[in-house]
Amino acid sequence: MALLSVIRRWHHRDQLSIREIARRTGLSRNTIRKYLRAGTAEPQFKVPERPSRLDPFAERLALWLRREMARLRKQKQTVKQLHADLVSLGYDGSYNRVAAFARDWREDYRRQQHMSDRGTFVPLSFAPGEAFQFDWSEDWAIIGGVRTKLQVAHVKLSYSRAFIVRAYLLQTHEMLFDAHNHAFRVLGGVPRRGIYDNMRTAVDKVGRGKERSVNTRFLAMVSHYLFEAQFCNPAAGWEKGQIEKYVQDARHRLWQPVPQAESLDGLNLWLEERCIALWKDIPHGIEPGSVADAWADETASLMPAGRPFDGFVEHGKRVSPTCLVHFERNRYSVPASFANRPVSLRVYPDRFLVVAEGQVVCEHKRIIERSHDGPGRTVYDWRHYLAVVQRKPGALRNGAPFLDLPQAFQRLQRHLLRHPGGYREMVEILSLVLHHDEQTVLRAVTAALEAGVPTKVHILNLMHRLLDSKPVATPPVTAPKALRLVSEPLANVERYDALRVDGHRENRHAS
Q1: Which pairing describes strands 359-365 and 324-327: parallel, antiparallel, or unpaired?
Q2: What's the whole-model pTM score?
Q3: How far is it between the farthest Cα atoms of the chain?
Q4: Could you give the 3-state DSSP secondary structure of residue 424?
């Protein structure tokens, strides 16, 4: 390129002869004449056609590439896999040659189909209250001093671009429903349409075109909030490009540096406050003012959220003979009357209810373990086993559910189990919580221990005093003066010594 420029400048500007230019450059005069006759500012070289080891396999490779274009993004084979298939057919060329062929073939295919290349999109426009977009992402936070991987739900209004973020330990149906409840609460209402990708928590099966087999519980939530669910085409993230872009921006605004919190609830509270604060700082870009200003205009167009959706997921379980139900590798106690019987678990993000015969039997705080190496944890409620120990009071000594009794009950148990019949008496005292407030029973037990009379009779007496709003401690009695003795008896042991001496003298006394 530089040499051609010099030749053209010497000949056309400096009027040097071809012979002189050939002498200065060392090129032949025919080469110089060819450059000057071409009349171009840069040389063009025709690449000679050379045979390639890929030529015998080119037609087959083109058929494979056409097949891959029709597949979903996650089902497509990579060029490395195609190269390995060609090697199994006898191809002994390099991977780079196959990659270059695939790149050229795709460019020709797009030109023939009048397709735009990646990175070219159509700008979208939304009316106030028309739509929101939803997506999941994975991020990290330090919770209780432990670096924890989180599943983060993102909801963004398409018109005002107001957004809300909520973090969970899992990406399940109950987490999805809870994220919508909190999002509509913070955003002040529900848009008329929700835009989603084909996530497994909403879509059970992707059909042709826009056909979707939608999860039943997800449809129940959509029906509850009265919005229309729209699902993007597979591998077409640009159809909800606002939330896709926001997921990237949120990592810089919220997750760098890594946030810290004592609990997941504390982290979500901070995320909610931080998102609302960012609305005021981020310019809208299209509408005048900030995101908060556009959101204030959009709230009037949103549908009222109403009561939150009861977003539980139900699982059928069978209670074991030890009154335990298994869920997510952990075990939870159930009242003994439901042992060996089927029950339902209504699972929420942070708890679950055990339901039988249309009634809530008990409730447990949900334990979510990230590690799958251990045997799981067992959560007991000693109240669930009272019906068993009433028939088998000896189980109190080594019963695992009774190792975590309140401190007052433990002190009473250590005292009673040292005496005959103490097991049954302890069971009868524990059973008082089935009919009375547990704190009232604990107050009576504590008062009996402090008085030094930890017996069932005394505890029942104190219980009745507490239930009747009477004082537990008996005040001292002050006798009136009329009842006092004029001459109070004195303790004198010498009288008994005199009787002993008289007896020694063989004196007879009436018995």
Answers
A1: unpaired
A2: 0.69
A3: 172
A4: helix
